[in-house]
Amino acid sequence: MSVTLLSSRFLARAGDWLARHRGTLIGLQWLVVVFYASLLIIPTLLPLPDSDARILNNLTVFAQFLFWGIWWPFVLLSMVLLGRAWCGVLCPEGALSEFTSRFGLNRAMPHWLRWSGWPFVAFAGTTIYGQMVSVYQYPQAVLVVLGGSTVAAMIIGLIYARDRRAWCKYLCPVNGVFNLLSRLAPIHFRVDVDAWKNSYHSHKVIPIVCAPMVPIRNMQGNAECHMCGRCSSHRDAITLSPRSPNAEIVRVGPPKESMWQTALLLFGMLGIAIGAFQWTVSPWMVTLKQACAEWLINHDIMWPLEKSLPWYVFTNYPLHNDVFTILDGTLVVAWIVGVGALMGCVLSALLALGNGALGKWDNKRFQHLALALVPLAGCGLFLGLSATTVSLLRPEGVNLTWVQPLRFTLLAGANLWTGVLALGIVRRYAAGNGQRVLAWLSVAIACAVVDLTWWLMFGGWTVVQWGHCMPGARVC
Ligand code: SF4
C-alpha cells in the first residue's frame, strides 16, 4: 500500500474521529479555557517581576513566556501545518463565543458585522494598541488586550447567531491572518461534489451545524474552515485529505471582493506588524525622537516631553522605569502606521508592475499575485513573535547561537516558497515567457524589500549604526 494511500486513510479516520468525539473535544476546550483564564488573571494579582525574576521562578514571567514565547508563535505555525485546527479544536475564545451563543438572543447578524474590512481593522488596531501598552511585558496590558477580546467574543456570541461563531468569522483580530496562513496547510476537508449530489437520493441526511458558517458544499479550501471535523463524512462527501500545500493559493486564488484581505497582507502582516516588531531596535526611531524633541524644545513646547498618560493608553510603570511620555507614545504609533503605509505602498507598487506586465489591469490578478507573499508574511510574524521567545530565554543562560542561522534559514525557505507560488500564479496568466519573467521578478523584488527589513532587525542595524536602542527596547 502506498504512503499516499496510507496517509489518506489515516487523515480520513482522524477527521471521523473528530466528528465522533465532540464530547472529548469540548472537555479539552474547557481545560484550555481554564488554563488561559489563569494565565490572564493570576499574573495581574501579583507584583510586577523584578530584574531577578526568571521563567521558572516567577509566574508572571512564566505566563509571559507561555503567551508570547510559545503559544502565539506556535499557533501561527500550526496554521501552516494543520489549517485552522487551533480555531476549531482548542481556541478558548471561539469555544466561549460558541458557548454563550447557545443561551443568547439569536439575533440576525447585521450588515456592519459582516463588513469585509474587519479583519484588517481589528488586526491593525490590536497590533498598534498592544505596542502602546507594551502588551508583551505587562500582565494588566495582556488582560486588557486578550481579555477584552475574549469578553467581546462572548458578548457577540450572546447577541448573534445561535450555536455559531459570529465573532470568529467576522471580528476576531487574527481571523484574517489565520485565513491566509491556513491556505498553505497540506491537509483540508475535501468536498466530493458528486457524492454530495448523490446523497440527495440515497439516504436520510442528518444536518450538521458548522459553527463558523462555512458554505460546506462549495468549500474549496481551508481559508474559512476551522477544521473542527463536525462535517467529516457528512453525506459521504466530506473527507479530511492530503493535498499540495500550494494548491489553494495557486489554483483557488483569491475569493471575490478580497481587496481588504490584500490590504491585510501587504499593509498589515508585511507592514504594520513589521513596524510593531522593529521599532524598539531601530536607530532611526531614536534619531526621529531626538529630532522631534529638539524641535519641541526649540519651540518651548514641553508638555509632550513631560506628560504621560494612564497605563491603558500609553505604557506607564514608573517603578520599573518604563514610562512613555506623550511624545514617545505618539511616535510609536506614528512609526508603526508609517512603516505599514510605506511597506504597503512599496509592495503594492511592485505587484502592480507585475500585474501590468501580465496585461490590462485586473484586480483579481493583482490580489492573486499578492497571495504569493503569504509564506513570507507568515514567516515574518513567526520571526517577530519568536524574538520575544529569544529575549526571554537569554537571561536563562540558554545557548542561543543556533537562533540566528535558524532565522535566516526560515527566511530563505519562505522566500523559496513564495517564489514557487509566484511561478505557479504567473503561469496561469502569462501569455509568454517575457511576461512570466517580468511578473515573477516583481514578486521577487517585493521579497527582497521584506528581507531587507528583517536583515536590519536581526543584525543590519548594528552594522548600519552600532549601539543605538530606544528606551524600553525589548530585543536589543
Ligand atoms: S466546514 Fe465547518 S463543520 Fe466542517 S470541519 Fe470546517 S468548520 Fe467544521
TrEMBL record:
<dbReference type="Pfam" id="PF12801">
    <property type="entry name" value="Fer4_5"/>
</dbReference>
<keyword id="KW-1133">Transmembrane helix</keyword>
<feature type="domain" description="4Fe-4S ferredoxin-type">
    <location>
        <begin position="153"/>
        <end position="188"/>
    </location>
</feature>
<keyword id="KW-0479">Metal-binding</keyword>
<feature type="transmembrane region" description="Helical">
    <location>
        <begin position="405"/>
        <end position="426"/>
    </location>
</feature>
<feature type="transmembrane region" description="Helical">
    <location>
        <begin position="332"/>
        <end position="358"/>
    </location>
</feature>
<keyword id="KW-0411">Iron-sulfur</keyword>
<dbReference type="GO" id="GO:0046872">
    <property type="term" value="F:metal ion binding"/>
</dbReference>
<feature type="transmembrane region" description="Helical">
    <location>
        <begin position="25"/>
        <end position="46"/>
    </location>
</feature>
<feature type="transmembrane region" description="Helical">
    <location>
        <begin position="112"/>
        <end position="132"/>
    </location>
</feature>
<feature type="transmembrane region" description="Helical">
    <location>
        <begin position="438"/>
        <end position="457"/>
    </location>
</feature>
<feature type="transmembrane region" description="Helical">
    <location>
        <begin position="370"/>
        <end position="393"/>
    </location>
</feature>
<dbReference type="InterPro" id="IPR017896">
    <property type="entry name" value="4Fe4S_Fe-S-bd"/>
</dbReference>
<feature type="domain" description="4Fe-4S ferredoxin-type">
    <location>
        <begin position="66"/>
        <end position="104"/>
    </location>
</feature>
<dbReference type="GO" id="GO:0051539">
    <property type="term" value="F:4 iron, 4 sulfur cluster binding"/>
</dbReference>
<keyword id="KW-0812">Transmembrane</keyword>
<keyword id="KW-0813">Transport</keyword>
<keyword id="KW-0004">4Fe-4S</keyword>
<protein>
    <submittedName>
        <fullName>Putative electron transport protein YccM</fullName>
    </submittedName>
</protein>
<dbReference type="GO" id="GO:0005886">
    <property type="term" value="C:plasma membrane"/>
</dbReference>
<feature type="transmembrane region" description="Helical">
    <location>
        <begin position="66"/>
        <end position="91"/>
    </location>
</feature>
<keyword id="KW-0472">Membrane</keyword>
<dbReference type="InterPro" id="IPR051684">
    <property type="entry name" value="Electron_Trans/Redox"/>
</dbReference>
<keyword id="KW-0249">Electron transport</keyword>
<keyword id="KW-0408">Iron</keyword>
<feature type="transmembrane region" description="Helical">
    <location>
        <begin position="263"/>
        <end position="281"/>
    </location>
</feature>
<feature type="transmembrane region" description="Helical">
    <location>
        <begin position="138"/>
        <end position="161"/>
    </location>
</feature>
